[in-house]
Amino acid sequence: MTSLSYREFMEEVKKRLKNLSAEDLRSMILNWASEETPSGRQEFLYKLICLRQDNDVASDIETLIDEIEEFAQRVENGEYCDGMGVG
Asked: What domain of life does the native source organism fall in (predicted)?
């Protein structure tokens, strides 16, 4: 199985969630909750709290992550290299 980058993963998640109704999402989360082990229940509840972030904050976080990934790609492409060894 191939490994997805964060960006690829998030794009796929967004694509899959795009057409789900609020009721579909509630049902999905309740189903996941019903399958949670006793030792994982507190962490599961914590994830639900995190989902309740202000939309602006969540959007800012996504924008920042995208900008960091774009910068990292530019670094990998050598955009910030001054011609190593060239004098």
From this structure: Bacteria
Q: Which domain holds residue 63?
A: 53-79
Q: What is the DSSP string of 7-74?
A: HHHHHHHHHHHTT--HHHHHHHHHHHHHT--GGGHHHHHHHHHHHTS-HHHHHHHHHHHHHHHHHHHH
76-85: pLDDT as tens digits: 888 877 765 5
User: How far is Cα 34 from Cα 28, in angstroms, rounded to an integer?
Assistant: 10
- pTM score of the predicted model: 0.50
- For residue 16, being part of any structural domain is answered with no
In angstroms, the CA 28 to CA 48 distance is 13
